[in-house]
Structure formats: C-alpha cells, structure tokens
Amino acid sequence: MCGIVGAVAERNVVEILLEGLRRLEYRGYDSAGVALLNDQQELIRVRRTGKVQELADAIAQNPVRGSVGIAHTRWATHGGVTEANAHPHFSGERVAVVHNGIIENYQSLRATQREAGYTFSSDTDTESIAHQVDSMLNKGHSLLAAVQEAVKTFHGAYGTVVMDKQDPERVVVARSGSPLVIGLGIGENFIASDQLALLPVTRRFIFLEEGDVAEITRTTVSVFDKDGNAVQREVIESNIQHDAGDKAGYRHYMLKEIHEQPVVVRNTLQGRLTDTGLNTDIFGPNADEILAKVKHVQIIACGTSYHSGMVARYWLEQYANVSCNVEIASEFRYRKSFVHPNSLLVTISQSGETADTLAALRLAKEQGYMASLTICNVPGSSLVRESDLAFMTMAGAEIGVASTKAFTTQLTGLLMLTMALGQANGMSDATRDAAVKALHALPAKLEETLSLSNEIEGLAEEFADKHHALFLGRGDQYPIAMEGALKLKEISYIHAEAYASGELKHGPLALIDDEMPVIVVAPNNELLEKLKSNVEEVRARGGIMYVFADRDANFVSDDTMRVINVPHVDDMIAPVIYTLPLQLLSYYVAVIKGTDVDQPRNLAKSVTVE
Ligand code: F1P
User: Fold this and answer.
1) Are 307 and 336 within 8 A, CB to CB?
2) Residue closest by Cα to atom 5 of ligand 1
C-alpha cells in the first residue's frame, strides 16, 4: 500500500527519496511523487502515475534538487489513479504533505475549508490535511504546533509528513494508525513508513508510537506523545537483511521466495527446535509460564496468514488438545465475541502492520484475553510491539505481494506453538517425538518438493486459457486448497474457489465440466479414501483433475486425471509440503498469462487501511 519517504539533510536528497520509493514498490501502488525545497527556497513537485521508474525518468529529464524532501507511492483509495491525485499534496505554494491511511472525516473538513476560501485540485482526503495545517500556520502556530493542532481534527488513520516552505529546516510527522519510522543519520535524518526504505542510509531507527508527533531537523529529533508531552523513544539498531534489487537470478521475487523456503524454514527452526523438543521461552520472556495455563486459542489474521491460522486450528485440536477458533480480523473486530476462560489471543501477520489485525488485537486486549501472542515476520512492527509475546518467523523480507515463504514459516512456528501448548495439555511423548522428527525433516522435504518445478511448469500451459478453477482438500489440507486458490486468483486473475471436498455434493458439483480444472491435494492420510470418493464424483461428471498426491496414495494418470507425485512426508508437516506445488502452479500460470507477478493489479503487500 502507500509508502512514505522523507529526508532532511545538507546534501541533495533526490536519489535517497527515489531509492526509498523503489524499496517500497513491492507493497503495491499506482502512482508516485516527490516534493523538495530547493536552494532558492522554492517548493517543487514531480508526480507520475505508474511506476517509480517513470518518476525517476521524469526527474532525469528535468533534474530537480533539494536537501529537504518528501516522497510517496500512492495506492488509490479516495480518487482515481491520476497525477492530480498523486502525493505530495500542496496547500497553496506553502505546505506539502504525504499521507498513508484514510482521513474519514475529510468531507466535512473539505466543506469547512471551502468556506474558508481553500480550493481543491484533487479528489483525495489528503489534500484536506495540507489545508488544515496551512490554516493552523496562518493562525501563527509553528509547523510543529500547527500539525499538533491539525491532527486533533482528524478522524481515521494517518501516517503523515508535512513540509512548510517558510520553515525549510524541518519536517513534522504524525502517526496514528499507519506506521512511521524515523531513521537517524549523522547530520541528517530521515522518515519512512517502513525501515526497508531507509536501509541504504541508516540502520538506527526510532519507531513512532500511536499518537506521536515528531519534529525532524538535520541534527535533532523531538518526539511528542498524543498529549503533547516530550517523550524519549528507544533507538533500535536494525539487523534486518534486505536487498530489494536482488532477485538472485530468478525472473521474479515470487519465484526466488518460493525457492528460499527450505532455507527460511530451517532458519525459523534454528535455536528453537532441539533433538527432543523445544528450547524454553521461544515465544518470548516467561512465555512457557503463560502457555502452560492456556486452555483455548483465538487466532486472528487476514489473507494468507488467515489460512495458516486455519491449519493451526486442526493441529491444536488434534495434537495439543487445546480448543481453537480462527477468524478473519475484519469480521472479529466488528462483532461481539465470546472470550473463553484462559484464552490466548494469537495474531498472525507477515507485515505486522495489517490494519484490521492490529485493530482486532487492540480490541481483544480490552476483552480479557489472558495474553496475546503474534506470529510475525517483521521485527519492530506494530503487532510485535503491542503483543505480550512474539514469535518471529525468519522468512526475511518478502517482496512478492502474494505471500509464499511467510506462509510456510508461519506454519512452522504454529507447529511449534502446537508442541508448546501440547506440553501442558497431555500431548503424548510419541506425538511430541513425531513432531520433532517431522520438523527436523521439513527443510529437506521442502527442497525435494521443489524439484517438481519443471513438471508443474509444463502443467501450467493447460490453465492459461481457463477462467475458473476449483481446489479441493480435506482436513488440514482444506486450508491449503484455500491458499492454493488464493494464490491463483492473486497473480493469474483466474477465478478460483476452494472447497472441503466433502462439500462437493452440497453445491459445487453443479460447476463441474471440462472447462473447470479441479486441483486436488491428496496426501496419504486417514482421509484418503474419503477424498478418493470425492474424486470419483468429479470424474463421473466429466471433470478434468490435477491431483497432487502422495506416491503411495495410488492415483493413476489417465484421460481425465493428471497425477503429480509429491514426496511422502509425515502427516503433521504435509500441509507445509503441499503448499509448494500450488504456489509453483500459480506462479507458472501467471507467467504464461503475462501478469505482473510480483505486483499484481489492485493489490498491496501491507494493508495498512481497513
Ligand atoms: C495479510 C495479506 C497477505 C497478502 C497480501 C495482503 O498480510 O492478506 O496475506 O499476501 O500481501 O495482505 P499480513 O497481515 O500477513 O502482513
């Protein structure tokens, strides 16, 4: 979603801003822009719809420079994808603003501002931020005070950075609902919506908290909390590994990330899984003491992360004897729900910034959960900071909008959570030993599964002209079928649905014909015979099937069924393993269709608005 970069320096900051925007490209956006204060104290702006490269080309043709600047990638919410709606937005020739989030009361702000004589050149909610700050400046406030006063009138979510032409030494930033991080340099300071944007210039960061307003000059950073009190926020040294430019020879980040899974799953296990069980407190300080009391788990997440939560429900109830509910964050947060005694709230998120998941966590905290745990991939993210316990997946930066390695590392963490909760709830030694063995084997099995890549690439040809697809699975493979369908939708734009195959007779069988490929995930588990009956139901209606099956499951390819043999693995890790062929299938179908694999249309990597 939208990205912010800003800088206050002595040197020309144009390249820093553009590089920052490039590093945020993976989040998804549709236009980009930059505003600078140049040496003549003029406010200049360049904006383009499309890619950051188009903005960079425009600047290369008509160079601009400045030592104070703000830049933005916009993912349209209010107003179409036009240059006029791209950020930065100005109020007159004085104030420039970039903004992530949504100002929900922008209509009423606009009405008041119109009455005061302001005019609008965009359809955005952001322009009303610029005018609001300008009106406060006109009352004689400093830039800092003007922003502090202006934010009092905003309802909604914002991460915003403001420049004032008449005060060229500083930018003022405000955070409420959309993350912002200050990067500390030597004789220069920076701001961004994500630390990745600033890694070329610094590794020292201050993560702003909800309600913070901060004033940033070349040499000072002053932070004020929501009540206006000056506060000290901790400076964190980031050791995050990321090189946005590096596809390591792969054609797309998504393919690179699919192939990284054996390594990142190994990294996620490292230091946590021993030869006989788990190390202590791998979910945070004193976690073992808290987990020992847990009798129920409520999982909250969105998208792919929700699917990993769905798998965890099967695991927790089957292996750990702990009851579990899973819910989409946007539903959970707007309904009254029941809090079971001794409930642990678990949020799952790659980014740690998903607006609905974060809001659900905040709501749940008021509802009497025993403790909150997040399974998250981004250190220092809002979910990590606001949860009692955290388990960091070690997927590394995930650039492809469609999540792959984050998902399999989440599953790895969730299986370890199952072991940890099972410990206090009667998990047998045999089950624990099986889990340890299966997890130790997982990276190598993932590697083996990736060798199906060529076969799946060949198969993808058969999907390129299809408009619909149906994914089937049972038990803990049902969420994997859902994840497979989501991947195909996201990057190839083929309509795909997933069903628990026992549900076929209850409706979806009506869809079956030879134009609707049916993808089946079929490990050799106790549900195999049931699944085989469902496969026969599809066959009897002329359906064409692609079955990803355990080699011992005895499926045979024929005119109506193509069987792809998946390595045999223990039941516990089968959901992780069967994810890979479905990721590869979606990837190769998307490549054949020529879509923008890493940045699919209309989607954003980090969904920071609800
Ligand atoms: C949730 C999510 C991702 C998806 C896309 C949009 O994000 O739905 O699963 O791939 O990037 O957001 P998160 O909470 O896991 O960061």
Assistant:
1) no
2) 605
Q: Say if ligand 1 is within 6 A of residue 402 CB.
A: yes
For residue 304 and ligand 1, the question of a CB distance below 6 A is answered with yes
Q: Which residue has the tokens 């914002």?
A: 158
Ligand 1 lined by 252 (C-beta under 6 Å): no
The strand pairing partners of 177, in sequence order, are 158
For residue 443, say if its preceding peptide bond is cis, omega within 30 degrees of 0.
Answer: no
* Angle, CA of 268, 239 and 299, to the nearest 5°: 45
Which are the catalytic amino acids? Answer: 2, 605
Return the SS3 of 131. helix
Q: What is the position in ligand 1's atom list of the atom closest to the CA of 406?
A: 15
Which residue among 24, 27, 253, 304 has the greatest number of ligand 1 atoms within 8 angstroms of its CB, and so is best to mutate? 304
Atom of ligand 1 minimally distant from the CA of 305: 15
Residue 246, pLDDT score = 76
C-beta of 583 in contact with ligand 1 (< 6 A): no
Question: 292: number of CA atoms within 13 Å, CB side?
Answer: 6
pLDDT at 243: 56
DSSP state of 505: G
| Low pLDDT (below 70) residues in the chain | 241-245
CA of 396 to the centre of ligand 1 (A): 15
Rg (CA), the chain: 25
The answer to whether the predicted template modeling score (pTM) of the entire model surpasses 0.90 is no
- Between CA 486 and CA 493, with CA 492 as vertex, the angle to 5 degrees is 75
Nearest C-alpha neighbor of 144 from the set 165, 171, 168, 166: 171
Note the pLDDT of residue 602. 86
Beta strands in 165-270 (DSSP E): 171-176, 181-184, 189-192, 204-207, 213-216, 221-224, 230-231, 236-237
41: amino acid identity, one letter: Q
DSSP state letters, 404-446: SHHHHHHHHHHHHHHHHHHHTTT--HHHHHHHHHHHHHHHHHH
Q: Which of 415, 486, 447 is nearest to 577 (CA)?
A: 447
Closest CA to 373 of 408, 409, 341, 348: 348
Distance CA 556, CA 182 (A): 58
The beta strands (E) that lie in 256-340 are given as 296-301, 323-328
Say if CB 9 and CB 217 are below 8 A apart.
Answer: no
User: What pLDDT is attached to residue 607?
Assistant: 80
Residues in CB range of 27: below 8 A, 6 or more apart: 1, 2, 3, 73, 75, 194, 401, 604, 605, 606
Spell out the SS3 assignment of 438-465.
HHHHHHHHHHHHHCCHHHHHHHHHHHCC
Give the integer Cα–Cα distance in Å for 528 and 193.
47
Q: Give 492 Cα–ligand 1 centroid separation in angstroms.
A: 17
pLDDT at position 245 is 53
CA distance 596 to 593: 9
The answer to whether the CB of 607 is under 6 A from ligand 1 is yes
